[in-house]
Amino acid sequence: MIALTPERIQSRLTLETVDIAMDTTAIRCLDWDRDRFDIEFALQNGTTYNSFLIRGEKVALVDTSHEKFRQLYLDTLTGLIHPTQIDYLIISHTEPDHSGLVADVLKLAPQITVVGAKVAIQFLEDLVHQPFKRKLVKSGDRLDLGNGHELEFVSAPNLHWPDTIFTYDHGTQVLFTCDAFGMHFCDDCTYDEDLELLNADFRTYYECLMEPNARSVLSAIKRMNELPPISQIATGHGPLLQHHVSELVGRYKEWSQAKAKAETTVVLFHMSEYGYSDRLVHAIAQGIAKTGVAVEQVDFRAVEPQDVRELMEIAAGIVIGMPPQSQAAITQTVLSTILAEANSKQSFGLFESGGGDDESVYPLRNRLQELGLSEGFAPILIKEPPTESTYQRCDEAGTDLGQWLTRDRSIKQMKSLDSDLDKALGRISGGLYIITAKKGDASSAMLASWVAQASMEPLGITIAVAKDRAIESFMHVGDRFILNVLQEGNYQPLMRHFLKRFPPGADRFEGVKTYPASNGTPILADALAYLECEVVSRLDCNDHWLVYSTVEMGRVSSTDALTAVHHRKVGNHY
């Protein structure tokens, strides 16, 4: 791990262009000094952001770059080709390090057709805030650029964003994979010549970004195997793979098979591109994943009965998004197979897709209950366009299901501490606080005691938040929240209220007196003090996130009162 030094004030940014195949140019943005990335894992060797230009009779740009390279990238791109000559912009996924300059490219070339998965286009609409032409694609769809460059798209959700697609050029046998098979490694070598040099970074990258979605990795590799030979993999980060393609893809498969075999898994069936299914699925899957449970997403239209049987054998839980009645000829085979293979040890959840033609949840719910399956969350009904509150309810429903499926594991972990160590650890005391947060029409709150001041300049605090807590979704980098300090002798009513187990989507502030902060977040009127905070970074602590936030302002209601203190006797719970 590289330590920051005072003299490293500005990162060294460079850019190179390399012809990697017939009519195909890589635009590699080299970030030599970046030492942290994305989910806050340390980088030893910087990173790169790779974009690609394919010139047939029509021209396609595959991804853009991070906004920090704005001028370098745009100057280079316009030096390679006049923007008005670009016909398509392919969005592998909408993570900002690859789509950070999409709006800039569209301003230079408003004639471009943006190509991506349906959910990617939906996400992009919220990012660029301007109209654009679009083309929705899924696995098997093709786009002919001419001169032999026929592009085929491969759906690869959750690698590591829900909207990910791969692009295969039949003319050059290059597979463009964005994050998958990449690594955070920055040097002048375009390709993977020295595997010994890359091994550690390749493995670290897989463990941080791909391992949590091991079954999705295996699904993507299965689709890759249906393509013609792959001569090279053009990744979104690090060197491109040409010399060791089979070896490195094989490692992904081996690691993912080992991970998937040991995991508790939920299979999530839905009809992609129907109603609001894709974003609802993403929210539920995100909630499940917080609990350490693997999620396998399955499209009704893209799965065979044998695949369903195999998935049902390993599934601890199933979630089903209701398909359209008009597609019964396709979906009934899948649903019948699910019912035939379901067993009483499994849990389930159902949700409407909001497409206007949904099958009713209730006949299927009754049938699953008759088979002895337990319901992980109540049916989620979609009668109007979803809001942030709807997606938060889905996230919380997924978390409830995941927590139920891992309850035995949690109990075992609590009992695993040595008795003396458990008691000693329990002597670490803390204050009592309520975290409150709001995004759009969604809000959340949590009782917290693992809170500490962390810095003076700037003023900063840290809060340890369990990964499976609902409020975790409100505490990402850039989010704002309120830390309400509870008062000694006057904390019991608030503590009892916020310790309750709320059903998904419930209003946690019902019956609690609040008033809005400057950012709209609820402040508890009965709190001793409050601090308005903004999340700056998060450190992965295995089962918790350590969230570092700067403090923007605060108030105290009674200068003579004391903060409520939480004393424990054991350290295996809060």
Give a structural overview.
- This protein has 574 residues and is an alpha/beta fold.
- Helix content is 29%, strand content 28%.
- The protein is built from 15 helices and 30 strands.
- The strands form 7 sheets. A 7-stranded mixed sheet has the order 1-2-5-6-7-8-9.
- The protein is globular, with a radius of gyration of 25 Å.
Number of helix segments?
15
Taken from the alpha-carbon principal axes, the silhouette is globular
Relative strand content: 25-35%
N→C terminal distance:
31 Å
Question: What's the total number of strands?
Answer: 30
Radius of gyration, in angstroms, nearest whole number: 25 Å
| Residue share in helix | 25-40%
* Low-pLDDT runs: 1-9
Look at the helices and sheets and give the structural class: alpha/beta
- Arithmetic mean pLDDT: 89
Strand order of the largest sheet: 1-2-5-6-7-8-9
**Major sheet summary line:** 7 strands, mixed
What's the structural blueprint in terms of helices and strands?
Layout: E1 13-21, E2 24-31, E3 36-37, E4 41-42, E5 47-55, E6 59-62, H1 70-80, E7 88-90, H2 96-99, H3 102-108, E8 113-116, H4 118-128, E9 133-136, E10 142-144, E11 150-155, E12 165-169, E13 174-178, H5 195-210, H6 214-224, E14 232-235, H7 245-262, E15 265-270, H8 277-289, E16 294-299, H9 305-314, E17 315-321, H10 328-341, E18 347-351, H11 361-370, E19 374-375, H12 388-405, H13 407-415, H14 419-425, E20 430-431, E21 433-439, E22 442-448, E23 451-455, E24 460-466, E25 480-485, H15 492-499, E26 514-516, E27 522-524, E28 529-541, E29 544-556, E30 565-566
Helix pairs in contact: 6-7, 8-12, 9-10
